[in-house]
Amino acid sequence: MTHQSQNERVLSFELFPPKTAEGMDKLKLAVERLNSVGPRYFSCTYGAGGSTRERTFATVGWLREQGIETAPHLACIGTEKAEMRDIVGHYIEQGITRLVALRGDMPSGMGRTGIGTFRYANELVAFLREEYGDRFTIEVAAYPEFHPQAPSAQADLENFKRKVEAGADTAITQYFYSAEAYRYFVDECERMQIDVPIIPGVMPITNYNQLARFSDACGAEIPRWIRKRLEAFGDDKDSLKAFGHDVVLELCQQLLEDGAPGLHFYTMNQSGPTLKLWNELGLSQ
Ligand code: FAD
Q: What family, per the record (predicted)?
């Protein structure tokens, strides 16, 4: 694994578009605090099939008004090219230069797979490069513990390589709690000449039920010893958060020691858990 110097590290924060005005107020407060430590950029998720389109636009629009570098996510599954042009055109007007290009997971009952629609993220990356050249830095997703639908680890790596060959500049991983899984993945990518920075996605642990639900859906493993301890805390939220913080802090320390080129925090629109990690890792540059 090649090592990255501290100043070259890409440190970023992910947000999701709130559903309510109250949620938006909370997001604004969280962003104010998170932005004060100087991340490279914020990203904002997008619901596949356009389910959050207007809310993602509103969140990205507000971030841009604050002069914050923002990377909107694009989820392409079932989306017509004309619609993708509309969305990207909107972002060009807002001065966006970075995009996270994804396939997404179609909500059940919303399957659209007509002609002109995208099937996989590599097709979206190729489309963005064909239509917009080098205007955007393009990020894609990577899975150190492998995507749940991949027929094999090797097939998933080859599909990841396809996205890089189509023109992705960098990758953000699904979250994981095993530094070894990341290390093996990066080494395997190096062997396959996949030569983009692979930034670990970091999920703070603050709520066991929510984490267990997400992890079951996305194939991110919570190691048994962590799961058992989290279960045992029951309603003792403070002890759970303290334990969760220690686990994730140690993971991040290990990742940075191993030469990870940055960290991407899944903030869940909360500043506290991420900033506690940030400060204890000494990430302010
Ligand atoms: P792909 O890279 O297309 O891969 C999907 C699956 O298909 C994999 O199993 C892969 O091995 C296989 N595959 C890929 N290409 C091919 C091919 N050409 N032929 C055959 N098989 C292939 N979801 C959202 O809806 N909105 C978001 O904002 C969002 N943000 C995310 C951010 C990050 C950092 C990550 C890691 C995930 C995010 N997701 C989001 C979830 C993501 O959309 C899902 O994990 C989705 O199932 C896969 O998306 P992908 O871009 O990785 O897909």
A: Belongs to the methylenetetrahydrofolate reductase family.
